[in-house]
Specification:
The chain is 45% helix and 0% strand. It has 175 residues and is mainly α. Helix 1 packs antiparallel against helix 4. The longest helix has 15 residues.
């Protein structure tokens, strides 16, 4: 796996605020509109990348919480946990730039001349690190963050009816 070692600045206050908001959103204590309104603007690539990723948990057409039918699956909850852990860490965001945070952007698929460039960017992103660990690029970094004070729901995340509230209520890890 190849990835750049370009170090960018870490915006600690924005990361702490974003991590707290991600935890509250995951627990259903914050609506998608409240999350969007309160999420910090920052030059920190991690803060921006997490915002792009959690957009996939929102519905632009209605205000909702991640409860009831909108409750996250264990896999989605694990991703939200990893986002919060990464934002609580001092790790630089090492993934290459991607227009849709690692997903194929559907609107660009409607423009065939962009397909070669889109495919190149997407493959480059997919090969940069361990996708299951995103936004961490390496599994060792994820495991180190899990052991640094924040408890983890485990590899499969908590069940659908347990653990979400405890996940969101955890205090921010101090690095």
């Amino acid at each position: 796996m190849r990835h750049s070692r370009r170090i960018e600045s870490i915006d600690r206050p924005a990361r702490q605020r974003a991590a707290s908001l991600v935890r509250r959103f995951a627990a259903g204590n914050l609506t998608n509109e409240e999350l969007d309104d309160r999420y910090p603007e920052s030059g920190d690539r991690a803060v921006r990348a997490v915002k792009r990723r959690i957009w996939f948990y929102s519905d632009d057409l209605r205000e909702h919480r991640l409860t009831g039918p909108d409750r996250p699956t264990p896999e989605q909850l694990a991703t939200l946990e990893q986002c919060a852990l990464f934002l609580e860490s001092e790790r630089p965001y090492e993934w290459p730039r991607h227009p849709a945070g690692g997903h194929l952007p559907v609107p660009m698929l409607l423009f065939p001349p962009a397909w070669p460039l889109l495919l190149w960017v997407h493959v480059r992103f997919q090969r940069a690190g361990e996708r299951a660990c995103w936004p961490f690029i390496r599994r060792e970094d994820l495991e180190a963050a899990r052991g640094a004070g924040a408890t983890s729901p485990g590899p499969d995340g908590p069940g659908r009816d347990e653990g979400v509230e405890q996940f969101a209520a955890r205090p921010l890890a101090r690095s």
